[in-house]
Amino acid sequence: MISVRHLDVSFGNVRAVSDVSFTVAAGDIFGLVGESGCGKSTLLRVLSGLNPHWTGSIEIAGRAIGPMRDKAFYRQVQMVFQDPFGSLHPRHTVDRTLAEPIAIHGLDNAEARIARALDDVGLGPRFRFRYPHQLSGGQRQRVAIARALILEPSILLLDEPTSALDVSIQAEVLNLLARLRTARDLTLILVSHNLAVVAHLCNRLAVMQGGAIVEEMTVDALRHGEPSHPYSRELLRASLGYHRAAGTS
Q1: Residue 180 contacts by C-beta under 8 Å, 6 or more apart in sequence?
Q2: What CA–CA distances, in Å, run from 53 to 10, 45, 155, 191, 203?
Q3: Are the beta carbons of 158 and 190 closer than 8 angstroms?
Q4: In the chain, how many domains are there?
Q5: Within a domain: residue 54?
Q6: Is the pTM of this model over 0.85?
């Protein structure tokens, strides 16, 4: 479903992403993990079309994708951002937020699409005319997920979707994403610095350091403490929450 080959991204003299290559099969959940500043969010912004300044090759469902994207691309690929409050317009109701992409793409049955999106993320009609400040952090992120789903994409790009949420809410959102992936036959890429989050949701992951992928592995290998690269092992040791979860499994 997704193929990235020899991707490079630079900001002036700073090389943010360096010769990155990976593939994601249809229906898979692929994680990109690493410390802040390692290039994982930059990579996601390239995939989503938000950063047109890159070299290399990208294919989506077998079709080569360039820096400029058409509407058909955005019907197929949608992104959920880290901060649900910052990604929602503070003066737009949930209804207006969900109606906007429908209008932009000229889709019909707006009422049914909005109702289905809200139902799919567990909010329902009573939230439809609320403003972001009237919602909790978890509810705002559910609205952001609903907005991404409204165009019925096949790929969701998730940029730290739970890091701005309370720990008690994080698992709820991750479980929601896992359920939506199955129900809607989605392919997901999850960016996170948290190995526990990646282990909870993903099948495979790539570890990034200094703009490059230093190791790819399955989540089973991660759970068994089998990373081969020194940085991956260091990241695993530093993830105390993951060790607590592993110790009780």
Answers
A1: 120, 121, 145, 149, 186
A2: 8, 10, 22, 20, 30
A3: yes
A4: 1
A5: no
A6: yes
- The bridge status of strand 187-192 relative to strand 77-80 is unpaired
Q: How many CA atoms lie within 13 A of 193 on its CB side?
A: 11
Q: Would you say residue 2 lies in a domain? A: no
Distance CA 213, CA 188 (A): 18
Helix %, strand %, coil % of the chain (to 5): 40, 25, 35
DSSP H or E stretch at residue 72: helix 71-76
**Domain of 216: which CATH number?**
3.40.50.300
Answer yes or no: are the C-beta atoms of 200 and 229 closer than 8 Å.
no
Please report the pLDDT score of residue 243 as a whole number: 44
Q: What is the pLDDT of residues 111-153, one digit of tens each?
A: 999 999 999 999 989 999 999 999 998 999 999 999 999 999 9
Average the pLDDT over 81-101 and give the result: 92
From first CA to last CA, the distance across the chain in angstroms is: 33
- DSSP 8-state secondary structure symbol assigned to residue 120: H
Q: Which of the two residues, 162 and 80, has the higher pLDDT score?
A: 80
Give the residue numbers spanning the domain of 184: 28-48+68-248
Q: Tokens 């889709």 correspond to what residue?
A: 107
Q: Quick one: which of 120, 191, 111 has its CA closest to 153?
A: 120
Confirm whether 217 is domain-assigned: yes
Q: Are residues 126 and 155 in contact, defined by beta-carbon separation less than 8 angstroms?
A: no
185 in any annotated domain? yes
